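Q: Predict the bound structure with phenylalanine.
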Amino acid sequence: MENKKRAQWGSNFGFIMAAAGSAVGLGNLWKFPYLAGKNGGGVFVFVYLLIVLLIGFTIMLGEMVIGRSTQLSSYNAYQKISKNWSFIGAMGVITGFIVLSFYSVVGGWVLNYLYQYIAGGIPSDTSAYFVSFISNPISPIFWNMVFMAATAYIVFKGIGGGIEKACKFMMPALFVLLIVISIRAITLPGAGAGIAFYLTPDLSKLTTGTIVAALGQVFFSLSLGLGCIITYGSYLGKGENLEKNSIIVPFIDTLVALLAGFAILPAVFAFGFEPGAGPGLMFITLPQVFDKMPLGWVFGILFFILVLFAALTSSISLLEVTVAYMQDQHKWRRTKAVIVLSTLMFLVGIPASLSMGIWSNVTIFGKNIFDSLVFASDILLPLGGLLMCIFIGYVWGIDKAVAEITIGGKLPFRLKGFWTVMIKYVAPIAVIVVFLNALGILKL
Ligand code: PHE
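A: Predicted complex:
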């Protein structure tokens, strides 16, 4: 099923911006700082870094190899290599659908906050404001629609002219904004306590909860386990160095997560707020920080532009996973796939959004609809990653993967030994252990 006209990235730099754009998102700016705040600061950061080095890199390279080798998006890529294993790809497409359904709800919140800052600011009771906004039955759904429409528009424009172009502009802009805001935050009087909390790993605070949270966060933050990187990798030309790319993309993602912590936690400490505030950290605590800061509204606007860029470059990758599946498998045209899928995901987002308000009493296994979607992705991403490791290690075979990485021996592969051990043994075992622990079967 060779597709001669398959789109390609304009350059390897374009691919890196797109893949890093997928990785850098709400996971870095919203989740990472609050998870670090909740899970002991430095110790969480330490465990997170370790998992990125060992498992993040391994799975990133694994996905890139599958995509580039087959030149097909996730489902068809697995199918081409081994028919019986295409279910991993199918699972990934469904996961992409689920993740974007709730991701764009939060993307809508970000748009609303940006709009409010431009229109004059957030009321000073930020907590009451946040709760009343997300529980409103109309306004968050309106903003979700705008966010989804923006996502759909970029994906509709295609690989080079849409995704690559958008990421090549938004990623560098995001980086500059983040540096400006981090410098502002760490130079606030009293920021030192936050920096110390963030950088000093107190190993006595290490719990299994920290490890489980960090592992889940690595998968989410690096966009692993659902075939995003397989799909993006399928638009890569044969000359590109996958080993290098698999180091650069997690590096950028991790740098942004760390910087996000610097942009947020020192400011939170400087003004005497609670770092463990959880999901409200970005929407409740941070606006209070901006409120107290000189020229805070300017920083509010800059900050939410930055978050919006990060969220969009991720949401387009999620939509692309499902769109590419429809193109490769069902021969749909891009336009049709984009319109149908983004509409469906928006519709699923409606009950998710309502579950913050009038539908909060509708629960699935004790969780509201929004949290159930998040929970499903928390399981599906590591599961997808685990199956991918088994697939490469034991079904496709390391040798074929290595041949693709080295282009039949023409490119060096310095970490070959490390990667082989990681993908065959360490990564799958680590994910299984964490799963068993989370299920309460194995007590660590
Ligand atoms: N990595 C994105 C983030 O950190 C989210 C994402 C997950 C995107 C899975 C694609 C696939 O926000």
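A: Residues 296-330 form the longest helix (35 residues).
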